[in-house]
Amino acid sequence: MLNIAVCIKAVPDEECYNIIKFDPVMKTLIREGISMVINPSDLHALELALCLKEKLGGEITLISMGPMTVTTQLRECLSYGADEAYLMSDCIFGGSDTLATSYVLSKGLRHIGNFDLVLAGNESADGATSHVPSQLGEWLGYPHVMEVCALNIVDEKIAAVRKKADNYFVDYTVKLPAVFAVSRGMNKVRYPSIRGILSSKGKEIKVLTAESIPDLDISMIGLQGSPTKTGQLITSSFHRDCMLLDGSNEEIASAILGMIRPVIDD
Amino acid sequence: MWYMNEERELLRKMVQNFTEKEVKPFVKEMEEHKTFPREIVRKAGEVGIIGLTYPESYGGSGEDYINAALAIEEIAKESNTAAVCVLLQMHLCVRWLHDYGTPEQKDKILRKIIAGDAIWAGALCEPVGGGNWFAYNTKAVLDNDEWVINGSKIFCTNAGQADYYAVLCITCEPNPVEGRGTTLIMVPKDAPGFKVGHIERKMGWHGSATGQIYFNNCRVPKVNALGPIDMGYYACTSSSSNGTILFGAACLGSAEGVYERTVKYCKEREHVGKSLFDSYQVVRNKLAEMLVEIEAYRVFIYGICETLNMGMDATPQLVAAKIKGARLFQSIASDAMELHGSNGTIVECDIERFLRDAMMNFFGGGIPSVLVDNLTYFI
């Protein structure tokens, strides 16, 4: 029987990328009018959790940090077959960078109970820093492995995992509890079953605020607890000009070289 | 919409995803090679779509016609054929088994159909007799503990694909006034004396197999009778009518699919520097008129679903929905064809496929003129 926690993040739907706007003062994403979806990598972490539960038994607990609207994504995750969900939502969590976010999540997980495995997607589709899983492992004092593409529970205390590196794999034997960041190629995400969807309405999504966590250090969360400071916001220009060159092949090649060289030499 | 809630939104989203990944890639195969979408049906069973109209005791999720219609509507946005192949396992002829099958039959077969692991077919129509089932020629006689069936059926949907056929047979001297004379008998595909004949080439519903089946001293156990002996007419007509609403949902979904493709086309297709949509009021108005029809039909369909969910009879409304659905889908597909111009006739454009499938809805499950005649009984 495994007690598995899966970290879930709500990210903007990629179909909304062309209408996303940023608050120029807070330098944060303006969420109004943007439809949110479950971070795609997190679904692979959830799929791994479901497979482990089916094989070995146990319970799956979802945890997320974000505004109350994230209950929609948590409800969807429950429909896949997770057992319970916690949403850490408080306005003072707003503006947290990855360090502050992982701190809040670690405190939440400690508050909820003891887990054998903490799973997360390897990266988020919006920030894509891949910081949170490792930071979470550090806060919890658990070993952590990123880019996990295979996992086997050897016994109650040990997991064998395979990490995907650039052009090779690394196999680790990891003492549990541990944090694993699951890569997208690890598995194929199932469809939530109709029964799962219909039964999800009976599952409560518990909300944890800052006050719910007694030992939460307020100085470590939100903007004040975030060492990451957003610099200048700029909009990249993708404007391209077309120039037609006349002449022989040699002349055209020479002209192209003449245009490229100053840029390379710069 | 009034019928939507969080769970139904999740259901809609799941089926949308299912359609994108499982149905869409298979459309070309169905169209070009007339391949039956067995894998789509199997997976629809696996995720629980087929079980939306069946009780939990046989692996379903409880009867909820709104949930079932939502699922079929989503699939039909991509393919009317795939939607029809799935909905035929969700209700209609399978309902005969659900309502009249013995516990053993249901445990053995209905459970497999709901899981997507078995295909069911209803076999009624014959070369002579038309809508008069008592004039059919396929006969079954009891020989000790076996039915011996002789005859043939035409326009049998799922011919050659089904694992089980529910065959309407003449089993005594027909008496149409009393409704006596026919019995539904279940024939497995490997029954001795059973043979699949010619599979028809149709203008639409290319993935759905329609063909002839033959019975030459075909023997099946006596216990394969479905429902009351000699009263098959009532078994057929009393139990399957609610499933008609799923044909309506398929027409609604496909009309929406055609409409969405047409809006996209009209906004992208340039004409003298501007899109068709921006250039012509007649185009904008035509699209608006299409939307009016679709949204009105949506309210109609889901209103009937709610009536059925409350356990109330909606027979005339179901007949009306079947008639209106075929007309709506055909009308939207025709308008879409006009707005697409010559592009609409190109196979890769999808519009001609939808128009062909729209025409099939005039015949599958009842011809509107016959249904209109049926409706007059309620006036």
Give a written overview of the molecule.
The complex is a heterodimer of chains A (266) and B (379). With 266 residues, chain A is of the alpha/beta class. Chain A has a single domain (2-220), classed as Rossmann fold. Chain A has helices at 40-56, 71-80, 98-112, 132-140, 194-200, 249-265, and strands at residues 2-7, 10-12, 21-22, 29-30, 36-38, 58-65, 84-88, 117-121, 144-155, 158-164, 169-175, 178-182, 205-208. In chain A, helix 3 (98-112) crosses helix 4. Chain B is globular, with a radius of gyration of 21 Å. Chain B contains 14 helices and ten strands. Chain B has three domains: 6-115, Butyryl-Coa Dehydrogenase, subunit A, domain 1, CATH 1.10.540; 120-233, Beta Barrel (Butyryl-CoA Dehydrogenase, subunit A, domain 2); 238-378, Butyryl-CoA Dehydrogenase, subunit A, domain 3, CATH 1.20.140. In chain B, 50% of the residues lie in helices and 17% in strands. Chain B has helices at residues 6-23, 27-33, 38-47, 65-78, 80-90, 93-100, 103-115, 232-239, 244-268, 276-279, 281-309, 315-340, 351-360, 368-375, and strands at residues 120-123, 139-143, 146-157, 164-175, 180-188, 194-199, 210-221, 225-226, 270-271, 274-275. The interface between A and B is medium-sized, with 13 and 16 residues.
Strand content of chain B: 15-25%
Distance between the termini of chain B: 31 Å
Q: Give the tally of structural domains of chain A.
A: 1
Low-confidence stretches of chain B: none
Q: How would you classify the helix and strand content of chain B by structural class?
A: alpha+beta
Specify Rg of chain A, calculated over alpha carbons.
22 Å
Features:
heterodimer, A: 266 residues, alpha/beta, Rossmann fold, nine-stranded mixed sheet, two-stranded antiparallel sheet, 6 helices, 13 strands, globular, B: 379 residues, Butyryl-CoA Dehydrogenase, subunit A, domain 2, Butyryl-CoA Dehydrogenase, subunit A, domain 3, four-stranded mixed sheet, four-stranded antiparallel sheet, 10 strands
